[in-house]
Design a protein that fits this description.
Blueprint lengths: L1 E3 L12 E3 L9 E10 L2 H7 L16 E9 L1 H6 L7 E5 L8 E5 L3 E3 L13 H11 L18 E5 L4 H12 L3 E6 L2 H19 L10 E5 L5 H8 L5 E6 L6 H7 E9 L12 H6 L3 E4 L7 H20 L7 E6 L3 H9 L6 E5 L2
């Protein structure tokens, strides 16, 4: 099989496609012929030597793929719902930048209906990340907001990233009012256009849902904490999904409602920040940090099943778009990473493997 193996660190030029042996298929495993591989910030961090794969994971890049099942191990065939020839997506600890992947069957889902199989590669990592961090223990109600002050709003930092774009659409589709931060007018317009397409899809439904409102904040021109304080009349937001880290810690806590939850999933501005403990205590709020990559196959499978039960229906209804803005041929993997590093990226980027 062809694959991009982690052999050296540096810029996009460090990525090279080589011929590698197909991994052995164990009893609980599935062999997938890969159609598409999603790019994620974790891939670029790994390339730079700042985010190594978990112990025992593949040294091939890539955390999410779509494709077709070529073979199932004996136990996977006997105990799972998966079938040979089925179109699927998979959440990986590594291995996605390859023409074939072997993964535990718990980490595999049928591909969602209504979208192209290659574009479906944009969903497993962002879907599992958003669902587990916003709708897990202590988070938002997946059935929609309770009609209480501070229970109806959420803040998503980085609304034009893959995770941000998915979170904005999902929260609005479930009825939450969404604040999101972006860095340019172009990016603000992109998020608003994505929201407009969601609203148009909703109006085509026989029974349209009540979508949450959207407020896009250009953090270069506006203070997001001040905007939230004004728009929520001082109540704050119930949950915050943060990819920025240290620089935003103080204003994030300021923006939380009573019993609010701040989840930090990346630290693009640095790993340390100032925390007002008195403010945190007075709000009875929670700050937590999580990662997804190192969790067990069983835990990943649980997250995927819970996520897909809600998200796959919304995709079929057109209320969540994979937001794939750029496709690159597998041979152009270096160019894909150059685009990702440029800061111009919008939505998701996908490698086309065949």
């Amino acid at each position: 099989m062809k694959a991009v193996v982690e052999n050296e660190h540096g810029g996009p030029e460090a990525l090279r496609i080589t011929e590698e042996p197909t991994p052995e298929v164990g009893p609980d495993d599935v062999l997938i012929n890969v159609s598409g591989a999603g790019l994620n910030r974790a891939d670029t961090m790994q390339r730079k030597g700042k985010y190594p794969p978990p112990k025992g994971a593949s040294n091939v890049y890539g955390l999410e793929i779509s494709g077709t099942i070529a073979h199932l191990g004996d136990d996977a065939a006997r105990t799972s719902f998966l079938k040979q020839g089925q179109n699927v997506v998979a959440l990986l600890a590594g291995g996605g930048y390859s023409t074939q992947v072997v993964v535990n069957h718990a980490q595999v889902l049928p591909a969602p209906a209504g979208i192209d199989l290659v574009d479906a590669a944009a969903l497993p990592e962002v879907g599992a990340t958003v669902w587990s961090n916003l709708f897990g223990p202590g988070g938002l109600n997946p059935d929609g907001p309770e009609q209480k002050d501070g229970e109806q709003s959420v803040l998503i930092h980085g609304g034009t990233g893959g995770i941000g774009a998915h979170a904005v659409q999902l929260c609005r589709a479930l009825g939450y009012h969404v604040f999101t931060t972006v860095g340019t007018q172009e990016k603000a317009d992109w998020v608003k256009d994505l929201a407009t397409r969601q609203e148009q899809a909703n109006q085509r439904k026989t029974k349209p849902k009540r979508l949450g409102e959207l407020v896009v904040i250009n953090y270069r021109d506006q203070d997001f904490a001040e905007v939230i304080e004004d728009k929520t009349e001082g109540q704050g937001v119930r949950a915050i999904l943060d990819v920025v880290g240290g620089d935003y810690l103080s204003d994030n806590v300021k923006s939380l409602s009573l019993n609010g939850l701040l989840t930090v999933i990346a630290v693009q501005s640095g790993p340390t920040g100032e925390l007002n403990l008195a403010r945190l205590m007075s709000k009875r709020a929670t700050v937590r940090g999580t990662t997804l990559r190192g969790r067990t196959s069983e835990k990943k499978g649980e997250i995927l099943r819970n996520m897909a039960g809600a998200v796959w229906r919304l995709i079929a209804d057109g209320l969540i778009d994979p937001a794939v803005e750029r496709r690159f041929a597998f041979d152009d993997v270096q160019a894909a990473h150059e685009y990702f590093d440029s800061g111009e990226q919008l939505g998701k980027t996908v490698l086309v493997m065949h």
